[in-house]
Design a protein that fits this description.
mainly alpha, two-stranded antiparallel sheet, 11 helices, 2 strands, 3% strand
Length: 236
């Protein structure tokens, strides 16, 4: 095992100090916490892979099915706005840029639908359930595809899903940039309020969204995931 002094030099004194604070000034325990964080991050990435693939395929299926029923001449719901209801919004500039980049990575205009879907980022799927697209996507097709979400109205269900997706995007970004995940952090909630979330809270969000999307996949994930066992074994 690496010594506290070696780890401090390896990851920088400032970064190591974060783990020392969380370990109540126990430098050896700080090393254990750092190594635990790496193990949890790896396990979370594996579970995010399951969530992202299942979620994006479910969104694609729901929108393809809806568009086929109202505008069968449309080849792809991503590129043709003629099926959007008059009160709805088509993509904003950020979404257009994200879709264009995904298509380019997939091989350009001749890329298959599946190839483009696979290149779209997790952030895009978070924003597709935002309030901006409630009339365009949620009320038309997605509310009926997420009947497992509790709520008395379509907007209630969408807001529940959006908040969980906001939380998960924040966690995924922290993982991608190797930011500390062992301490609670604050995220903005609807209405301008702030909420504090732990890693356990955010893993609950991941399982919840997967269960809302596909209960069968959620059950399978919980049978195989390493995350619950690692969360229970946190060193401090």
């Amino acid at each position: 095992m690496v010594s506290p002094s070696d780890l401090e030099q390896l990851i920088s004194p400032g970064r190591f100090a974060t783990f020392v604070r969380l370990a109540n000034a126990d430098r050896s325990l700080a090393v254990d916490l750092y190594e635990w964080t790496g193990a949890v991050a790896g396990a979370l990435f594996a579970d995010f892979r399951t969530l992202e693939v299942v979620f994006r395929n479910h969104i694609d299926w729901a929108l393809r099915s809806y568009v086929a029923s109202v505008a069968p001449h449309v080849q792809h719901w991503m590129w043709d706005s003629c099926w959007i209801p008059p009160q709805g919004h088509w993509w904003d500039e950020d979404a257009k840029e994200a879709l264009g980049a995904a298509r380019k990575r997939a091989g350009g205009r001749k890329a298959s639908r599946g190839a483009v879907i696979a290149e779209v980022t997790f952030g895009f799927w978070r924003y597709i359930v935002s309030g901006r697209y409630e009339e365009s996507f949620w009320n038309t097709a997605l509310d009926n595809a997420f009947t497992n979400i509790p709520g008395h109205a379509p907007g209630d269900r969408r807001r529940r899903l959006e908040q969980s997706m906001i939380n998960l995007l924040g966690l995924r970004n922290r993982l991608a940039h190797h930011e500390p995940i062992a301490k609670p952090w604050t995220r903005k909630l609807p209405g301008g309020r702030a909420g504090t979330f732990t890693l356990d809270d955010l893993y609950d969000d991941l399982v919840r969204v997967l269960r809302w999307t596909s209960p069968a996949h959620a059950s399978s994930l919980l049978r195989t995931s390493r995350v619950p066992r690692l969360l229970a074994a946190r060193p401090c």
